Amino acid sequence: MSSSGVSASPALKTAPIHNYALVAGGYFSLAFAALQVTGIWWSPSAIRYLGGPADLSVQKPVAYALLCLAVAAIVAVFGLYALSGAGQIRRLPFLRSGLITITAIYLLRGILFIPQLPVVWKHPHLVRFLVFSLVSLCVGVLYLAGVMYLHRHGRPGETKLAKVSSEEHELVRAH
Q1: How are the residues of the chain apportioned to helix, strand and coil, as percentages rounded to the nearest 5?
Q2: Claim: this prediction has a pTM higher than 0.85
Q3: Taking the CB of residue 131, how many other CB atoms lie within 10 A of it?
Q4: Nearest to residue 151, comparing CAs of 24, 22, 29, 30?
């Protein structure tokens, strides 16, 4: 420190503690992954009702189980990336790129409600598919809010250089 009390090093700023949007999106993804695993034991009529490959579950149950586990693993990774971005678990590789990609996947799946509207209008019993799209859209919005928060404030607990005002910069240069 100089005699004027101004540090010659740039200011460090610690990120806020909570990114509630990513925490919520991450736990939703993990819960959905667990639900996906339970699909292995669902009846063909339940699988068909929810839009899954009921014929595959009967004709090739091992392939169906592997499909359920693969989808569950992918969605679990989505959840882990959200929790990593929220600072709940260690930092994962390619965190920002991964979160942006995951956000885009959820949002794109969610906006499918637009072309589904006319179909549901003619066939109201298919409203469940509209609900699935809207849930995906809501989760995508959570991820988007979390990614924006992460961009503005950083990952909780990590320090980054704070923006130094021009006045502070002049004081540092003068000493």
Answers
A1: 70, 5, 25
A2: no
A3: 13
A4: 22
